[in-house]
Amino acid sequence: MKLNRLIVVCLMVLAAVAVPAIAQETESAVPELTAFHEVIYPIWHTAYPDKDIAMLKSLVPQVNELAAKVFAAQLPGILRPVLKEMDDFHKVLYIVFHKDLPDKKWDNIRTAAPELKAKAEAVTLAKLSTRLEPKAEMFKAAAAGLVTAASTLAALGPEAKGEAIEEAVLKLHTRYQDLEKIFD
After folding, report:
1. What domain range is 106 assigned to?
2. Is residue 112, in this structure, part of any structural domain at all?
3. What is the number of structural domains in the chain?
4. pTM for the complete prediction?
5. The pLDDT of residue 119
6. How confident is the model at residue 30 (pLDDT cuts 50, 70, 90)?
7. DSSP state at residue 13
8. Are residues 66 and 153 in the same domain?
9. Angle 133-134-138 from CA coordinates, rounded to 5°
10. What average pLDDT does the segment 91-101 reach?
């Protein structure tokens, strides 16, 4: 009887310790980013629009201090990339999709295309963890679609018009989103 009580108490203590750890891993908030926003807000909404150089200079120490904390922050599990190879691919795609495409920097996109293709091919070689192994077939199919889209972009020659490049980038971005959805 005492042994059963001891086991129950141990299980309760273990559960009490585990719940906050699990909650931290599934919470998407990063307190360091929230704190950083407190200094960025007046910069972006007041100092910069008003060209208030004195205010901008006065905020530099705070920006440096808070930026260091952001760089050192540990991301909760939910925000960490599922696979390093996907993260590596996304770092290049992000610039292409969110910077180069809106600015119609076609040469930048052409330059990035071979790297996107190589990184997409690396995604197909990524090793899934045991936990993700049940999704292996869906992953292989989506990764193959990513390679096809990246290859299409990379195959566009220097004569390709902006419309063709834009279409290829949009398709590539969609294929990346398809890949991400597998792990949601």
Report:
1. 81-181
2. yes
3. 2
4. 0.60
5. 98
6. confident
7. H
8. no
9. 100
10. 95
One-letter amino acid identity for 159?
Answer: E
**Rounded Cα–Cα distance for residues 177 and 89 (Å):** 12
On whether residue 70 sits in a domain, the answer given is: yes
- Residue 138 placed within a domain: yes
Same domain, 149 and 111: yes
DSSP per-residue letters across 91-150: HHHHHIIIIITTTT-HHHHHHHHHHHHHHHHHHHTPPPPGGGGGGHHHHHHHHHHHHHHH
pLDDT of residue 20: 43
Burial class (CB in 10 A: 0-12, 13-18, 19+), 97: middle
User: Are both 98 and 142 inside the same structural domain?
Assistant: yes
pLDDT over 70 (residue 162)? yes
Q: Residue 22 pLDDT more than 60?
A: no
Same domain? For 30 and 98 the reply is no
Specify the DSSP element, H or E, that contains 88.
Answer: helix 84-95
- How big is the chain, counted in residues? 184
CA distances from 53 to 41, 57, 100, 146 (A): 15, 6, 29, 46
Are both 86 and 142 inside the same structural domain? yes
